[in-house]
Design goal:
- This protein is an alpha/beta fold.
- It has 2 domains: about 15-250 and about 450-470, 3-Layer(aba) Sandwich (Aldehyde Dehydrogenase, Chain A, domain 1); about 250-430, Aldehyde Dehydrogenase, Chain A, domain 2 (3-Layer(aba) Sandwich).
- Helices cover about 40% and strands about 20% of the residues.
- The chain has a 7-stranded mixed beta sheet with strand order 12-13-14-11-10-16-17, sandwiched between helices.
- It is globular, with a radius of gyration of 24 Å.
- The N and C termini lie far apart (about 65 Å).
């Protein structure tokens, strides 16, 4: 699909061609803007926000979101097929993503309906006599959202939806590899009744242009989903007073106690590690299993991976699709070979199947200083480590500069809570994989994994300010 959608009075600087990560075929294109275009979209957004008479009332925002959910249902197949083509996530998983995105729009409606201020206590001492005080929520200002490639429908909903719900003009810059879904969704929002200028989707010509967009003084809030290197750099350059939330990645740990139900847990871990070829910020990566079961865990995970079909993401039979770029396939191949040279045992996979395809791989006992043990793999690779003592496993699990979602598997509630209390993570799953998420729960990376809290209701709150009113009246006693 070739999109011509551009914000009003903005001239295209060129076009970005989008190719399938699976077979390299051209699947569409979008216009790009340069620094002049960046200034124009920011001016448009700021002018909308500055004129409070143009702010969208809650009733109108709710109706727009209702219309949007209906339109997404009507365009379900087109949106799913387009996301599969540009992003390479298997069609079965992309349908689940689409269902989540529609539900996320409905979640935004609930955020509006449940939005409220609070009363601040007054008349409790001489200084506060004859006064009543309350707070009211208002939109924070112009939102700029920078998105990632791995969930091209749902991530856009997570960024645009709360902005529209909170009443903020939003400018969305999707990932360069997967911009088609964002352009499609912006077009649907327009059809849903969102007035012109309230949601502008742009693809910048280059990185400096994108940086100029994010760091402009007119930006009040940055929502960033992507690499830690870029996210932390952009945060350091935000204009004074701008707020932000950053979502990066991690090297998610799982601790399996000797009493864990392996029949229940291992299929979950295999799915959580190999889903979308491991290109998820909370993918299962490091599995610490008690020494009495560690070899069995590695063997059974390997067998589960071997049973997964790798190939065309448009096929109903495919479990694992392509890596987003060929250089990522090469990088993963290099990391695995390096880990094997450093003493890891290859249990399954370990080979490139095509330029964009890598086999689901299980490594047993990689060295602690191997890249696969210390850095985010972001590929279909699960590492299994044997441990003797739970405290040692926890120490090793925490020995990375990331802290996002973790997991512990045990039938003993005391063991599970012991690990929960000591794991360095924002979220600890008990008897579940690390990639579990529903879109209304808090989703927060700690340490180098991010800043602030994601999740639709939390983003909605972040995109508002709480304004206080204090009324003095001698009728109040």
């Amino acid at each position: 699909m070739d999109y011509e959608l551009l914000p009003k009075n903005v001239t295209a600087a060129g076009r970005r061609v989008v190719y399938s990560p699976y077979d390299g075929s051209q699947v569409g294109s979008v216009p790009t803007i340069d620094t002049a275009g960046v200034d124009q979209v920011l001016t448009s957004a700021q002018n909308l926000f500055a004129n409070r008479d143009q702010w969208l009332p809650a009733e109108q925002r709710i109706q727009i979101l209702k219309n949007m959910a209906r339109l997404m249902e009507q365009h379900y197949t087109v949106l799913v097929n387009q996301a599969v083509a540009e992003g390479g996530k298997p069609i079965l998983d992309t349908r689940i993503e689409m269902d989540r995105a529609i539900d996320g729009i409905l979640n935004c409606i609930e955020c509006i309906r449940n939005n409220s201020g609070r009363e601040i206590p007054m008349r409790i001492n001489p200084a506060s006599a004859n006064r009543i005080a309350f707070t009211h929520k208002e939109p924070i200002g112009v939102v700029v959202a920078v998105s990632a490639f791995n969930h091209p429908i749902n991530l856009i909903v997570h960024q645009i939806g709360p902005a529209i719900a909170s009443g903020c003009p939003v400018i969305i810059k999707p990932a360069g590899d997967t911009p088609l879904s964002a352009f499609a969704l912006a077009d649907l929002f327009s059809q849903a009744g969102l007035p012109e200028g309230w949601c502008q989707v742009v693809m910048t010509t280059d990185t400096p242009t994108a940086e100029a967009l994010v760091t402009d003084r007119r930006v009040s809030f940055l929502s960033f989903i992507g690499s830690a290197k870029v996210g932390w750099m952009l945060r350091s350059k935000l204009t004074p007073g701008a707020r932000c939330v950053l979502e990066h990645g991690g090297a998610a740990p799982v601790i399996i106690a000797e009493d864990a139900d392996l029949g229940d847990m291992l299929p979950l871990l295999a799915k959580g590690g190999f889903y979308h070829a491991g290109q998820v910020c909370v993918s299962v990566q490091r599995v610490f299993a008690h020494h009495s079961i560690a070899a069995e865990v590695a063997e059974r995970l390997a067998a589960l991976g071997n049973d997964m079909q790798v190939g065309d993401p448009a096929s109903e039979e495919t479990d694992i699709g392509p890596l987003i770029r060929h250089q990522e396939t090469k990088r993963i191949e290099h990391w695995v070979k390096e880990a094997l040279d450093e003493g890891a045992e290859l249990m399954s996979g370990g080979k490139r199947l095509a330029d964009a395809l890598y086999s689901p791989t299980v490594l047993f006992n990689p060295a602690g200083d191997s890249k696969v043990s210390k850095q985010e793999i972001f590929g279909p690779v699960i590492c299994v480590y044997s441990y003797q003592d739970m405290d040692d496993a926890i120490k090793r699990a925490n020995a990375v500069p990331y802290a996002f979602q973790a997991s512990v598997a045990s039938k003993n509630i005391d063991t599970a809570l012991y690990a929960y209390q000591r794991l360095a993570a924002a979220t600890v799953m008990i008897n579940d994989h690390t990639a579990f998420r529903v879109d209304w729960m808090p989703f927060a990376g700690l340490k180098q994994s991010g800043y602030g809290t994601g999740g639709i209701p939390y983003t909605y709150e972040d995109m508002q300010i709480e304004k206080l009113a204090v009324i003095r009246s001698m009728s109040l006693d």
